TrEMBL record:
Cited PANTHER family: PEROXIDE STRESS RESISTANCE PROTEIN YAAA (PTHR30283:SF4), PEROXIDE STRESS RESPONSE PROTEIN YAAA (PTHR30283)
Disordered: annotated span: 1-22
The protein's name in its UniProt record: Peroxide stress protein YaaA
Biological process annotations from GO: response to hydroperoxide
Highest taxon of the lineage: Bacteria
GO cellular component, one term: cytosol
InterPro entries in the cross-refs: YaaA
UniProt source species: Nakamurella endophytica
Length: 247
């Protein structure tokens, strides 16, 4: 049945550990991405065998060498549902642990998360901890965004209903199918000038994602989305395939 899917960025911060079984790439959604996932997982493990040498490749600070080392165990490490694994500002604002069982079921069915390692996963996809960003370039793979670009839009095109894109620019570079609605968080400044918000962008998107993940309202097109946002107290304006939301 058509409805809404919400595409989120990942976060650099991830919760460690987990109680789920080891990663099964063939169990993740969007099976057309499996071959690319295999290549990137293997390349990441190989480069991460020497965490210090991997730092400039992965573009990470020296404070996260333990996270880089964990890349070598991606296939065998315990897993968590993706919505519980990611732990950045957006996810804290979304506050998955506070969802009721019914809200969590709706969130699991609607939320998708972009991933440098996996392309796109669902909220309930079981994934391990890892360290890889969209800006990295892996030996044998090349740039991460370029590796995903030929595949992600086609995979997402099979989804029914409305696709709402809340990804950051780096992950939006993976591609999206025609008809995707991009949400831009903005603020009106002096003289009425509307600009993208900076510091509060992730928290605002987390609050918006929580609304879309849990609402019982019908959201099947951009007009439905604008009505939902306005009823929730947001100022939202729709132009083409972009919705500007004032935060």
């Amino acid at each position: 049945m058509p409805g809404v899917h919400v595409l989120l960025p990942p976060s650099e911060g991830k919760r460690a550990g987990g109680s789920g079984p080891p990663l099964r790439l063939d169990a993740l959604p969007f099976p057309d991405l499996t071959a690319v996932r295999e290549r990137i997982v293997d390349a990441l493990a190989l480069v991460s065998a020497d965490p210090e040498a991997a730092r400039p490749v992965l573009r990470v600070p020296p404070t996260v060498l333990d996270e880089v080392a964990a890349n070598t165990a991606v296939r065998t490490a315990p897993t968590l549902a993706a919505l519980d694994r990611y732990d950045g500002v957006l996810y804290r604002a979304l506050s998955a642990p506070a969802l009721s069982p019914a809200e969590r079921a709706r969130a699991d069915g609607r939320l998708l998360i972009a991933s440098a390692l996996f392309g796109v996963v669902a909220a309930d996809s079981e994934v391990p901890a890892y360290r890889l960003s969209a800006g990295a370039t892996l030996p044998g793979v090349g740039g991460i965004a370029a590796a995903w670009r030929p595949w992600v839009a086609g995979a997402l095109a099979a989804l029914p209903g409305l696709l709402v894109d809340l990804r950051s620019a780096a992950y939006a570079g993976f591609g999206s199918p025609p008809g995707t609605v991009t949400v831009r968080m903005v603020r009106q400044g002096p003289g009425g000038l509307v600009t993208a918000i900076g510091h509060d962008n992730k928290a605002a998107k987390g609050a918006l994602a929580r609304l879309l993940a849990t609402t019982r309202a019908r959201v099947e097109d951009a007009a439905d989305l604008v009505r939902l946002l306005r009823r929730a107290g947001w100022t939202a304006n729709h132009t083409g395939d972009v919705i500007e939301v004032h935060a």
